From TrEMBL:
Protein's organism: Sphagnum jensenii
Domain of life: Eukaryota
Name used for this protein in its record: Glycosyltransferase family 92 protein
InterPro entries: KOBITO1-like
Highest classification ranks of the organism: Eukaryota, Viridiplantae, Streptophyta, Embryophyta, Bryophyta
Amino acid sequence: MQISITTSTSAGLEQILPWLYYHRVIGVTNFFLFVESKAASPHSTAVLEAIPGVTVIHPTKELEDKQAKSRIWNETWLAGFFFKPCNYELFVKQSLNMEMAIVFAREAGMDWIIHLDTDELLHPAGAAEYSLRRLLQDVAADVDMAVFPNYESAIEHDDIKDPFSEVSMFKKNYDHVMKETYFELYQEATRGNPNYFLTYGNGKAASRVQDNMRPNGAHRWHNYMKSPNEIKFEEAAVLHYTYTKFSDLSSRRDRCGCKPTKEDVKRCFMLEFDRAAFIIASTASQEEMKRWYKEHVVWTDKELNLKLMRNGLLTRIYAPQVIVQGLREAGVFSDALLAGQAHVEKSHSQMHVLPSVSQPNTIPATNTGNSTIMNNKKVKGASKDIYTVRGIIGQPKDLVNEQAADRRKLLEFSSNGIVAAIAPLSPPDMDQLVSISLRT
């Protein structure tokens, strides 16, 4: 079984390498990394490109031009997020990158694709040998998409340097707790914050790589030809390490140019806590920020922690710590850095050709063992116009034209019954809980 993860990241290697190798340990085979900022530096990309199974997509003019021609811009399911700043802009970028990652995944012969951020780790609880591969192997053949409910980090001190190695306490998802307990302890569990979780609560999804699939926002996948058959894991989760460093307040603030007012932040952020954090980081002194961070993010009340732990809202998860620390002690990360140095000259001489995403991905994949990219180069001396995949003979041009006609029919078919993109959603709040209790 071939499992891929795609991400859009600006993180440094100190975060990406533990994230990547952890997922390799649990069974991920390929990574499609859309990089920018620190992740796109020559040193970072050289290190990442030297790792087998990793495809790095750089923020080039070519990428921008390809994505400007995406069919997404002519559809309605993502339209509500277009031309808005900050988190909305990121959400659109992630969706465009996911669309392109589908093409990479098909051409690399992947069975599954998952979109994750580099502050998230998959937790394959309930699977034999703590294996993502075993977990997905047990999914019924007629299931198209499997949802991992997310757990959120609950940090216990304000000076964390390495979240994957230091954080072991997590707040469990609404889907994995007793509803009566969630209702009874909701106020205590929120600790004065806008919601039960600081950020999103609707998980992330793994999808089988199929014809006609598309992203449905950063949290889900969809299909132009059918409604995916979806399940939700009862034990497995995605661990979200959110706001684990005090510096996250200022770094998130620096990525957004909105005014720190209650009205303007609504244009920039989808979730209430992000809005409040941005205003604090933009208007408060360092000392005030520290005090706010301790009150709203850090779990220092041991009595409350124990109460929520006993009632199943908080839990301890040590497996990621053990795996990441083991990898570090084995020299895996330092070896990757050394291999990257040797890869610098080679990486400078390689060119990635990006696939077109103006139509749904229905061209059969050509699997060469690595990620293969379609271009329009003709084979010299060929009797027909042949499209090639990095020099490997691919599809005859008349077949490609034939498939293009099929895609036009597909576009007509899929224009009805559009499913809107699923945004980051908070867990149920008190008003929703009252509504749910009244219905039941």
